[in-house]
Each structure stands twice: as structure tokens, then as C-alpha cells.
Amino acid sequence: MRKEKTNGGHVKKRGEALIESLQLPKDIMLGALKVNLTGNREAWIENYKGILEYTSCRILLQGKNCQVCFEGNRLSIDYYTNEDMKISGCIACIRYL
After folding, report:
1. pLDDT tens-digit map of 19-69
2. For residue 15, which of 54, 56, 92, 97 sits 20 to 30 Å off, Cα-Cα?
């Protein structure tokens, strides 16, 4: 895949540039993780690939291109399917690895 430079000097893959120019949703076209939060109590995650770690203090998920880690207290996965899930509890930190 060819790469091109943007005005800020960042290198962008040609496919990403095409998706942006056509204004297509990146989460669908690239399989990127999509995280929606309601305060610090609920998180809805789409496009995850698997659950790597699950405790009441830490939930680690695998995405296509990265991992996302939720840390906090009384964390639980309320439901999950192959495409999405809902995490609830007191979310103190979200890190992308």
C-alpha cells in the first residue's frame, strides 16, 4: 500500500486517504475500534476481536490494529456478541496499547 504525506508531515496510507476523501466511516471501512462512553459508568465497544483479560479492575480487549484497556473498580461485561459489548462499572482510565 502506498503512503503519502499530509500537510502536517504525517505519513498516511493511501487507503486511509481515500476513505477520508470519500467521507466514509473509518470504523466500518478499516475495522477500527469504536468506543462510546456514558460518563465514567458505561462503555459500548464495537469492532473488537477478542477479550484478552477480564477482572473486576481491568478489561483488556484486542482490536484489529491495537488493544484497549479499561481500568477501574467493579468493572463487568454486561453483554457481548461477536461485534459489540457493553462494559459497566466505575471506569477510571482507558488506554490504547
Report:
1. 566 655 555 545 678 899 999 999 999 989 999 999 999 999 998 888 999
2. 97
pTM of the model: 0.71
Is the CB of residue 26 less than 8 Å from the CB of residue 19?
yes
d(CA 89, CA 73): 6
Domain range list for the chain:
1-30, 31-97
Beta bridge partners of 86: 44, 79
Please determine, looking at this structure, whether the domain spanning 31-97 carries the CATH number 2.60.40.2000. Answer: yes
Pairing of strands 58-62, 50-54: antiparallel
